Amino acid sequence: MVSIIKSSFVNAAATTIYIIAIASFMFYGKGIGGSDSVFAPIAMLMLFVFSAALTGMLIFGRPAMLYLDNKKKDAIMMLIWTLGIFLFIMLLIFIILIFFI
Q1: Which residues contact 77 (CB under 8 A, 6 or more apart)?
Q2: What pTM, to 2 d.p., does this model score?
Q3: Do residues 59 and 83 lie in contact, with contact meaning Cβ atoms separated by under 8 Å?
């Protein structure tokens, strides 16, 4: 059970770090490149697809593998822990935004 919680925390933290990195790049990189070409929407859609795949893998990848290995209880517990930890991090960020910014 400890390894499930530890892996869940790592996956939720990695997802959070990835989201922070992409959001920071989008916020601070406004002046990079021109938005008058077709490449800006292409790049944004490619980033969207990559982000969906990566965060899907981080959140659902290991639980899916456990489920396919007939470790259904561990898979469900890991998914619940990962989503719970991610929800906690998200709420913490919302509280920081509401009260401190």
Answers
A1: 1, 4
A2: 0.86
A3: yes
Looking at residue 39, what is its pLDDT? Answer: 83
Mean model confidence pLDDT for the chain: 92
Q: Which two tokens stand for residue 73?
A: 């209880």
Exposed / middle / buried, residue 75 (Cβ in 10 Å: 0-12, 13-18, 19+): buried
Joined together, the tokens standing for residue 67 give 């489920």
| 86 pLDDT above the threshold of 80 | yes
Q: What are phi and psi of 72, to 5 degrees?
A: -65, -40
Please tell me the predicted confidence (pLDDT) of residue 10: 96
Quote the tokens at residue 98. Answer: 């509401």
Q: Which residues contact 14 (CB under 8 A, 6 or more apart)?
A: 58
Q: Which amino acid is at 95?
A: I
